[in-house]
Amino acid sequence: MKQRRAFTIVELLVVIAIIALLVSILLPAIGKARDQAKLTQSMANLRNMGAGSDSYAAEWNDRQFTLLEDNIAQYADNADQAFPAYRNAHNGINHQGVILGWGYVRAGFPPAPTGDYLYFEWPVDGGHPETRGMVQPIVFSGGGYYSGEYFGSFRLINCRQWNVYMAPKFYDEIYFAPKDNVVRREVEKQGCFDDPGEFCAHDTAMTSVLAKPIWSSYALSPAAMFNPNVMANPEKGGWTNPWTMPGGFRSPSKGQCRYPSLKTHIIEHHWLQARRSSCNPNFTPGTFDEGACEPWYFNHSWESNPATLFYDGHIETVGVRKAERADARVTTQAGFGLWSRDCGNWGADGYHIGASYDYANTSFHVLTTDGILGRDILAD
């Protein structure tokens, strides 16, 4: 009988080395494919939001999403006085708040509510002053966190007033980008993706009666939600406080967009593409992980490349480098840039630029000069 020859140690080591080499070649490719799949899904989310925006505009005479009465500034020149004055002028009826949706009551949710459902509507004439900021496109000044400064309806893309045109559930996965792991982890921890209600009553600790909502991964352009004269370029007088401007809060029509292929409409609010870390240590406390984490924002790194929907309906990733180069070119030629440096008391710091990672210096999308009439990038 023939004697069977076994593998030698050298031969086994060669096979193992070849397998290890193949794994080292394939793993990055698999990782890139997974990364690309998540980006593709985020772009699909944006496409669906664009369709929802078109549906909203079709029903509201081409108007863009708004939560404010057009002439709210006629009641007073600031939010603290305007909303109570509105109530007095309308026989005790408050200005409409942000409707988050119907939600199933959970056992042990404090305080114990009555009935089977809760209707989540934050009042704008009482409670925390922050609630008055939620109905404004963005709040330019305030006295701290609960004033709502830097916040506004541009972050509420999943509230009921608009989500009925897309996915009518506050915690639908369409509103949370696949790579937004910090935010998605919080939603999943609270079980809100699986909750059958329009809104999910969760038990995250906070000082108000209701647990603070978990905001969407996507954000509208607040500059485009104001009267274009609010963020006018310096040659036209520069930024004007919308509370002092007649019709300052009147939302423009989508048809007013002068550069639809260059003006951003909806963007990934957090730094998700080419991200180096999840949490920005410059925010203390943060919104997530019991105050331990606040995600980096899309404008906090030169390497950030957020998926973006434009007003003409096309979707692409817009690098912060590209936006900064475009802004520098226009500044050199026109004397002012593509984003407004004089909004409220923010100045050149703009939208949280001071919290950036690598000296990124832009507030494109958020503070676009001339609002919906302006541009965020230039044509290639």
Low-confidence stretches: 107-119, 204-210
Number of helices: 6
Largest sheet: 4 strands, antiparallel
Strand order of the largest sheet: 3-4-5-6
Compile the SSE list and pairings.
Blueprint: H1 9-59, H2 79-89, E1 98-104, E2 117-122, H3 130-133, H4 160-163, H5 181-189, E3 218-220, E4 264-268, E5 307-310, E6 315-317, H6 320-334
Antiparallel strand pairs: 1-2, 3-4, 4-5, 5-6
Describe this structure in words.
There is one protein chain. The chain is an alpha+beta fold and 380 residues long. The chain has one domain (11-373). The protein has six helices and six strands, in the order ααββαααββββα. The strands form two sheets. It has a four-stranded antiparallel β-sheet with strand order 3-4-5-6, covered by helices on one side. It has a two-stranded antiparallel ribbon with strand order 1-2. A hairpin with a 4-residue loop joins strand 5 (307-310) and strand 6.
